[in-house]
Amino acid sequence: MTELTPTADRPGLHISKPSVDTPAHASAVCHCGASATANGDDQVRGLVAGWEANHGSAHSHGAKR
User: Fold this and answer.
1) Of 43, 49, 56, 63, which has the highest C-beta tally within 10 A?
2) Which parts of the sequence are annotated with region: Disordered (predicted)?
3) How much is the pLDDT for 39?
4) 37 strand-pairing partners
5) Which of 31, 33, 32, 38 is nearest to 14 (CA)?
6) Is 35 buried (19+), middle (13-18) or exposed (0-12) by CB count in 10 A?
7) Burial (CB count within 10 angstroms: exposed 0-12, middle 13-18, buried 19+), residue 41
8) What is the value of pTM for the model shown?
């Protein structure tokens, strides 16, 4: 799974929830330098909402590639 984990060289959002009975885990790294992790379904939902509102596609038009 390490190849799916976002890094400064490969920014993105990764979410894992192996089964219905286990809590979700997420990690995010944006090309702007911001990064975050979350554990638990509610925290992961919050991370995804923040990512969508403030990072990723929210400001990718000026990203260096």
Assistant:
1) 56
2) 1-26
3) 97
4) 27
5) 38
6) middle
7) middle
8) 0.79
